[in-house]
Write a structure and sequence with these properties.
Strand content: under 5%
Order of helices and strands: HHHHHHHH
Number of helices: 8
Structural class: mainly alpha
CATH topology of the largest domain: Serine Threonine Protein Phosphatase 5, Tetratricopeptide repeat
Radius of gyration: 15 Å
């Protein structure tokens, strides 16, 4: 059995990590057509198991409106849910929401705190953000 089939079987069997990976495959179109609705379904299944990566991925879908209607408040909600559990990418994304006032009240101080926490966990972009470095925007 190839790795893709094994991952799909594990996801169908309810393994949250495999469900997140299947969602990422749907977003990126890895071995399949890009499909935001399927990605959302996989991430929701993993999120029901309290997987912080899934919560962060749901935030990204809502932030970008991929497979769901764009909703900045829902994006910030999912980022915050994962951030409080110590998931560095979500901490960074929540920091971005706070810095820009996207889906939440704007707060540079709170944004810096989330960037700091993410940077302490090794998140390079958060560290760069604290140091005032810019990076290119990436379209999804």
């Amino acid at each position: 059995m190839d790795d893709g089939k094994r991952m799909e079987r594990d996801a169908e069997d309810g393994k949250a990590g495999a469900q997140v990976l299947m969602g990422i495959r749907c977003v990126a179109g890895l071995g399949m057509r890009r499909d935001g609705e399927k990605a959302h379904a996989w991430f929701r299944r993993a999120a029901q198991q309290d997987d912080p990566d899934a919560w962060c991925q749901l935030g990204i879908l809502y932030e970008r409106g991929f497979g769901v209607e764009a909703d900045a408040e829902k994006a910030a909600f999912w980022f915050a849910r994962a951030a409080v559990l110590g998931f560095a990418p979500a901490m960074y994304n929540l920091g971005m929401c706070l810095e820009e006032g996207t889906g939440v009240a704007k707060s540079k101080k709170a944004a810096q705190e989330w960037y700091r926490k993410a940077a302490e966990l090794g998140h390079v972009d958060a560290k760069d953000r604290l140091e005032g470095k810019a990076w290119p925007e990436v379209d999804m």
